[in-house]
UniProtKB/TrEMBL annotation:
<dbReference type="InterPro" id="IPR037171">
    <property type="entry name" value="NagB/RpiA_transferase-like"/>
</dbReference>
<dbReference type="InterPro" id="IPR024185">
    <property type="entry name" value="FTHF_cligase-like_sf"/>
</dbReference>
<protein>
    <submittedName>
        <fullName>Lactate utilization protein B/C</fullName>
    </submittedName>
</protein>
<feature type="domain" description="LUD">
    <location>
        <begin position="110"/>
        <end position="207"/>
    </location>
</feature>
<dbReference type="InterPro" id="IPR003741">
    <property type="entry name" value="LUD_dom"/>
</dbReference>
<dbReference type="Pfam" id="PF02589">
    <property type="entry name" value="LUD_dom"/>
</dbReference>
Length: 212
């Protein structure tokens, strides 16, 4: 009898009675510590910085000039803009805007200098940003192919403390992209290479106050 047969046999015996699935104990901590919304945002910023993301803060009046400055510092000539992104966010920049077209191929997306998106939510304890393809986020490929991604996180409404708090807020049927810092990998000698599986540069704007 093979190992596969033994494992399958154990599974068949375990479910042979046809009863309900046993309850899974979920007695782990849902959040580590008690924080105010401001402290949660600070923790998110600290963990994003540890992952080598560039973190900025802005309010509703400051986001347009901040985005204009970030794109100018990058030397961006084109910026990919997903449907649903508030138009005034890019009102202060003269960079050519490229729409998120379903028919755009990877070569066209690779030629874009920057992409600006919103997000579904962000997780402070892990420094993770989650995109689900909702308004202002676009398709998954537009945040994986261009080399420079600027992501706007609305504080505090889009920030949660932990992964257990995040999961009930996300729809598993949507195309979820979990981002913890810029794309990077290391070889056997631990030489870090960035930009292999996604953008080489990730900039995160923590936006407080009215965003529209």
């Amino acid at each position: 009898m093979s190992s596969r047969d033994r494992i399958l046999g154990r599974i068949r015996r375990a479910v042979a009675d046809g009863g309900p699935d046993p309850a899974v104990p979920r007695d782990y901590l849902r959040v580590h510590g008690v924080r105010t919304p401001a402290e949660t945002a600070d923790l998110l910023a600290a963990h994003l910085a540890e992952y080598r993301a560039r973190v900025h803060r802005a309010d509703g009046d400051g986001i347009a000039p901040l985005l204009a400055r970030l794109l100018a510092e990058r030397g961006a000539r084109t910026v990919l803009v997903p449907s649903g992104l508030p138009p005034r966010w890019l009102a202060a920049t003269a960079v050519t805007r490229v729409e998120d077209r379903p028919g755009a191929n990877p070569y066209e997306l690779d030629a874009v200098d920057s992409v600006v998106t919103g997000c579904a939510l962000a997780i402070a304890e892990t420094g993770t940003i989650v995109l689900d393809g909702g308004p202002g986020q676009g398709r998954r490929r537009i945040t994986l192919i261009p080399d420079h991604h600027v992501c706007v996180v609305r504080v505090p409404e889009q920030v949660v403390d932990s992964v257990p708090q995040a999961l009930p807020l996300l729809d598993p049927r949507r195309p979820l992209t979990w981002i913890s810092g810029p794309s990077a990998t290391s070889d056997i000698e631990l030489d870090r290479v960035e930009g292999v599986h996604g953008p080489r540069t990730l900039e995160v704007i923590l936006l407080s106050g009215p965003a529209e």
